[in-house]
Amino acid sequence: METGAKRFIDQHVIVTGAATGIGRTIAHRFAAEGAKVVIANRNRERGEKVAQEIRDTGWTAQYIRVDVAEPESINELIRNAISTFGPVHVAVSNAAVSETQSSALDLSVEEWDRIFNINARGSFLFSRACAQNMIDSNVQGSIVTLSSIMARSAKSMSGAYPASKAAVIMFTKNLAKLLGPMGIRVNCVTPGVVATEIWHEVESEMMMEKDTFADWLIEQSVASGQLLIPRIGQAEEIASAVAFLASNEASYITAQVLSVDGGMDWCW
Ligand SMILES: NC(=O)c1ccc[n+]([C@@H]2O[C@H](COP(=O)([O-])OP(=O)(O)OC[C@H]3O[C@@H](n4cnc5c(N)ncnc54)[C@H](O)[C@@H]3O)[C@@H](O)[C@H]2O)c1
Known about the structure:
Number of strands: 7
Strand content: 5-15%
Mean pLDDT: 94
CATH superfamily: NAD(P)-binding Rossmann-like Domain
Number of helices: 8
Radius of gyration: 18 Å
Bound molecules: nicotinamide-adenine-dinucleotide
Order of helices and strands: EHEHEHEHEHEHHHE
Helix content: 40-55%
CATH class: Alpha Beta
Largest sheet: 7 strands, parallel
Structural class: alpha/beta
Number of domains: 1
Shape: globular
CATH topology: Rossmann fold
Low-confidence stretches: none
């Protein structure tokens, strides 16, 4: 979704989980608006590919490996990113994993920890490390976290993914409270249903064909009148909201949760 706006000229933007799906689209959006973008992902091959795609279009991007489940890996990411592009202006905490649809009664402790270490702890540590760099560099930057409609609904049978995404909303608000006086804004976007690889695990569990679950979920929601805009969401629509919140156009907005979900009414 090319808007022609150039709101991030020469700004340093880090996007975690930017090798695929929504994160990849967010990275493209910031780069097309003039930012120097770090593609932070644990998958080197796919991350390098996205950075190259962006450079091929004439914009600036660099892949840096991170596993957000590893605190030292996050510290190394921030060190490498700063030495590549200077102080951080915008941090987008997007990396996450989903889980199977298994019942909370069957969920193993290991699975709970895996989901929380990536989705909640990883997002918190990444956001906090970027905030510290903004403070140290006197940058009045912006942080955007990605939660999910699942954070506000008990629709899913499982326990860890929705709970981890609810945790993201709460620490986003707390960070916003702490950082507001320093001129750093922190907001959260909760996407609705977008067709990405995050659904692959659910598809395999439900023995559905790859890349069919998101469409199926939308069909169910439309049929039951639970979706005001009766279609699937596009990654570009999520990226637009993230870029808006990160930009000066949102200069008086902080501690907010913006739902970009077509009006899913099981989330109200
Ligand atoms: N697709 C949807 O319908 C949907 C709905 C609501 C919220 N979301 C949220 O949007 C964000 C993007 O998800 P997506 O749909 O693009 O899925 P995706 O699976 O395409 O993207 C997630 C990315 O995170 C990366 N990642 C996972 N674990 C990591 C780790 N430990 N360290 C570094 N990177 C890691 C993956 O490699 C992948 O590139 C997530 O926060 C997700 O929870 C997505």
